[in-house]
Amino acid sequence: MTPEMLYALRDQAGVPSHPLVFLVLGVLTFALHMAAVQVMLGAATLTLRGAFSASQHWRRLAQAMLVTAKIAVSVAIVIGVAPLLFVQVVYDPFWYTSNVLSAWWVIGFIVLLILGYIAMYIFYWQNHDIVADGGKGGVWMVLSLALLLAVGFIVHSLTNQMLFPEEWMAWYAPQGVVNPAGRELHYWHLPRFLFFIALSAPVTGAWLYGYRRYLQGGNEADAVYLGWLRGLAQQLMVFGGVVSVLVGAVWMATLPEKMAWFASSVWLLMAAVALAAVVALPLVLRDRIDSGIWGYGIFGAGAVSLIVVGAAREMLRFVTLLGTHGYNAMDYKINMDWYSTSLFFTTFGVVGGVTLAYLLTVAWQAGQSKGLYTPSAAVTRMGQWSVGLLVGWTVLYFAVGFFVWAR
Ligand code: HEM
């Protein structure tokens, strides 16, 4: 596949803002997607581990993690859409080819995701009080985890197939015979996939520190449970961190030849240092994690380190496609559209910011107060603003659409 052919596959309309904007947003939203995916997988696994245990601590944790996993799935899906949009804008020749070559799996992805989420809900419906009754129907949670992992594996395959334009013809027409069925996944790299999955352990450890701090904020009376949680969080971070580094090392040792440069690059070094710093953070903070926002800060630092990992992963793609295939994502034709660019950032910052701040404040305060929770006047006003902004946004969306249509 020559660079000219790759360039010919680009959208001739160009992109509506500088390509760097899409690359940076792609990295940021990919990191958020990963954080949600990893909390989802970790919380679901802890639910399985705890629900069937005789220990009350494990059961209590399972109850909390079931709710966490359930919400994390929806967050992972919603935040998964964002990198999907950005990757298909600047890397459309690669992303769409990879998707078309495995079209059945692209559609199957949605079916498996729906089934995986339903399986988790079936487990949830069967388990209203894990602390009192223990767990029931664990097979549903196992099925859910398996399906969600399969979904991740499909995305992994699609993102990796796009990096091998030299193989596309052989995949599309093996031995010269065209096979347009799209029934196969043609390429995957297990160590790479497992690296992102293994990171679930340290990320969930960091999440547990936040959960523990949250309970402390609500004046949790069970000090033994808090102490137990701290030990578990630490174990997950340290052992999970070591396992992730080992799996990452296998990934680096088995990189395809054209990507081998990455193993000795400064990008990899930065990612490794960022991950190690987060794992070491609780050991440095010690008892400070019980005060202020430090307990939450560990997860915040984890999210930052995932951004560094995401940036390194993006460099691997960018440099491979530029160096080996002559495709420069930064020279995409720009057809500057200030309206859509400003609408995007306003939606993200103002509408998203106010609405999310309201929802998080209400959830937070309700969880921290005992008895019936009544929001303050300021919080209620924030809620009214959120609704107003959403209505305004919707009206604007349709108004501009009709205006353009009527012209
Ligand atoms: C719920 C189960 C899911 C799991 C376990 C999962 C896992 C993963 C993993 C491991 C990767 C990294 C692959 C690699 O670099 O090799 C990834 C990337 C990605 N995921 Fe997900 N994912 C899930 C759901 C979704 C959903 C529902 C969407 C979209 C709606 C999505 C969109 C993406 C995109 C677009 C990327 C690649 C971004 C890029 O290449 O820049 N994922 N996911």
Automatic annotation (TrEMBL):
Residue ranges crossing the lipid bilayer per the database entry: 20-46, 67-91, 103-125, 137-159, 193-211, 232-253, 259-281, 293-312, 343-364, 385-406
Keywords, comma-separated and alphabetical: Membrane, Transmembrane, Transmembrane helix
Signal peptide (UniProt feature, chain positions): none
Domain of life: Bacteria
Protein name: Uncharacterized protein
